[in-house]
């Protein structure tokens, strides 16, 4: 009898407790009316290949989870199939994150190609049609992550990815990477001499993307286009006015298209040139803050120099696991976010754990005027 009488109070308590957490309904499950706009007042939460710390990377569920957890942008790597369909997949070979090796009918697709001067062996995306790739199922890249979703989710197309963002109950940006453009243009041929980069831009325009950073058009469908290949970003600057970001690898590595090291293309001279075409850089975070014996060292001047050229800085990749957290942060991802946002002063963060970054930013944001006590 007492329990029956208390049930309404228990239900009210649960509703009140849940109201304290910001919930983001899945696409198609939200309310009616105008969508909540993308936030522009704090560093962007960029879901690196979706919420792939929890669900296999670049899959629809990984992107849906990232949106639910509060990502500002969902990020993807764009590659091509044999028949010229753009897909969302990070590696140009399939074996590390799919079950392709278990498909005996594809055994003869294990091939060797020269990639940036080295022979690489594997199952290359451009040796499969979309219909064939849809037979595969994805798996987690790292063995220490949740394995329960292995073998469940297919590879998705770039258009399917865009639809996920557009169907979200609030405005969610997209952050596609033009991945390995030299390799794609070598092995995939489109009619009329069309390039891989042309197909990416064509798809974006088909879905209404465009506009300079923070313009009215951009705020309606936010987009950054990224690439490690500077010549691709220069090329598409004549095709679309959306903001572009130059990705930066280890400074000793050569770019795939210019035969320059990333040390050379992060010089002030190069920044003066490339800032005509890009709004920012996306550096590997160890190029910003070097690491020795798993401890971060004194930061370089890269962020300060980029900001001096009016370039935004979106480093990659922030991960919660002890395997990736440097010892300075006491195995605490929130300490890492605190350091990069407040001490280094970055403008966005690529993270595998969008929920963690969102929670940190919510907990450390000043109370709004409407939520302050009288």
UniProtKB/TrEMBL annotation:
InterPro entries the record matches: GP_PDE_dom, PLC-like_Pdiesterase_TIM-brl
SUPFAM superfamilies, per database record: PLC-like phosphodiesterases
Superkingdom classification of source: Eukaryota
Chain ranges of the GP-PDE domain: 43-361
Signal sequence range: 1-20
Keyword rRNA processing set for record: no
UniProt cross-references to CDD domains, sorted A to Z: GDPD_ScGlpQ1_like
Reactions accelerated catalytically: a sn-glycero-3-phosphodiester + H2O = an alcohol + sn-glycerol 3-phosphate + H(+)
EC number of this enzyme: 3.1.4.46
Keywords from the named record: Glycerol metabolism, Hydrolase, Signal
Record carries keyword Hydrolase: yes
Membership in a protein family: Belongs to the glycerophosphoryl diester phosphodiesterase family.
UniProt protein name: glycerophosphodiester phosphodiesterase
């Amino acid at each position: 009898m007492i329990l029956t009488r208390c049930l309404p109070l228990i239900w009210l308590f649960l509703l009140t407790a849940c109201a304290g957490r910001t919930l983001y309904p899945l696409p198609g499950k939200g309310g009616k009316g105008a969508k909540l706009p993308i936030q522009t007042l704090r560093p962007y939460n960029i879901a690196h290949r979706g919420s792939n710390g929890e669900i296999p990377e670049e899959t629809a569920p990984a992107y849906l989870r990232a949106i639910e957890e509060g990502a500002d942008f969902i990020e993807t790597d764009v590659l091509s199939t044999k028949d010229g369909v753009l897909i969302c997949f990070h590696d140009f070979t399939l074996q590390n994150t799919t079950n392709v090796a278990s498909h005996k009918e594809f055994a003869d697709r294990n091939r060797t190609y020269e990639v940036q001067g080295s022979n690489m062996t594997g199952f290359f995306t451009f040796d499969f049609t979309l219909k064939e790739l849809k037979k595969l199922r994805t798996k987690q890249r790292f063995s220490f992550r949740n394995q329960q979703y292995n073998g469940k989710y297919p590879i998705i197309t770039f258009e399917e990815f865009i639809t996920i963002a557009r169907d979200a109950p609030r405005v969610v940006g997209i952050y596609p990477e033009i991945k390995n453009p030299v390799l794609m243009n070598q092995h995939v041929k489109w009619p009329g001499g069309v390039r891989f980069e042309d197909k990416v831009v064509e798809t974006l325009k088909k879905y209404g993307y465009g506009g300079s950073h923070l313009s009215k058009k951009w705020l309606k469908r936010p987009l950054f286009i990224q690439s490690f290949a500077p010549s691709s970003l220069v090329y598409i600057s004549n095709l679309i006015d959306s903001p572009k970001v130059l990705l930066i690898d280890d400074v000793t590595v050569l770019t795939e298209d210019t035969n320059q090291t990333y040390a050379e293309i992060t010089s002030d001279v190069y920044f003066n040139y490339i800032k005509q075409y890009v709004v920012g850089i996306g550096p590997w975070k160890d190029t910003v803050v070097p690491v020795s014996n798993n401890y971060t060292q004194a930061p370089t001047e890269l962020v300060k120099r980029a900001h001096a050229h009016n370039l935004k800085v979106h480093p990659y990749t922030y991960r919660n696991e002890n395997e990736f957290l440097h010892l300075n942060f006491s195995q605490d991802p929130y300490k890492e976010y605190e350091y990069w946002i407040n001490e280094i002063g970055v403008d966005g963060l690529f993270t595998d754990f969008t929920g963690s970054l969102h929670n940190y930013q919510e907990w450390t944001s000043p109370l709004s005027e409407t939520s302050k006590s009288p």
